[in-house]
Amino acid sequence: MDGFKRRAEVKKTNILEAALDLFMKFGVQKVSIAEIAKQANVSQVTIYNYFDSKHNLIYEVMIYYVETAWIDTEEILNSNIATSEKIKAIIFNKKTATNQMNQDFYNYFMKEYTSGIAYLEEFIAKTMLPRLVELIDEGKDKGEIDASVSNEAILFYIQMLREVMQREDVYQKILPLSEEITKLMFYGIVGKDHK
User: Fold this and answer.
1) Would the CA dihedral through 86, 89, 95, 97 be positive or negative?
2) Partner of 95 for a Cys bridge, out of 65, 146, 179, 190, CB 3.0 to 4.6 A?
């Protein structure tokens, strides 16, 4: 990559990071392009040159958020810690992320997701679910996940959760409960880690 392209990528990343930071704190509706430009130390024209519109910028920020969060998750999944510790670390990361997210940004994110963003659907199908299956298989091999429950049943359960969470009446209420729902997903209603 030549120097011009590298500088352009750095500038684009700075804009995405500034927008994400502001959206996480204040929501999508309350943040202007001028505020994003100021935080990213670029002109408003530069933002429009890269993203064309605020809507496109928001879309790119959502992709950036998913990919950045996934990098952290991949580090956990690739670590040498026990499967149960990986699950705890993923839950803790999810709690930290949701505690920092503005409800308006979360609602906007979910509304876009439920309207069928092809990128997110493809990312889940091709990247997240295969890694989740690997984690489940690893846990079963180590005796940390109940081997009597099929991967098909686990994935079906996760799909049911995803479909319910895509309903507007649900996703508007779910953010404060996300850590507890994640614990239920991994540990069931007994409320404690599988030993």
Assistant:
1) negative
2) 179
- Could you write out the DSSP letters of every residue in 126-185? IIIHHHHHHHHHHHHHTTSS-TTS-HHHHHHHHHHHHHHHTSHHHHHHHGGGHHHHHHHH
User: pTM higher than 0.85, yes or no?
Assistant: no
DSSP 12: H
Q: Can you tell me the distance from the alpha carbon of 102 to that of 93, in angstroms, rounded to the nearest whole number? A: 16
Residue 132 — very low, low, confident or very high, per pLDDT cuts 50/70/90?
confident
Residue whose tokens read 């956990």: 76
* Residue 191 backbone zone (phi > 0: left; psi -120 to 50: alpha; other: beta): left
Which pair of structure tokens corresponds to residue 108? 């906007």
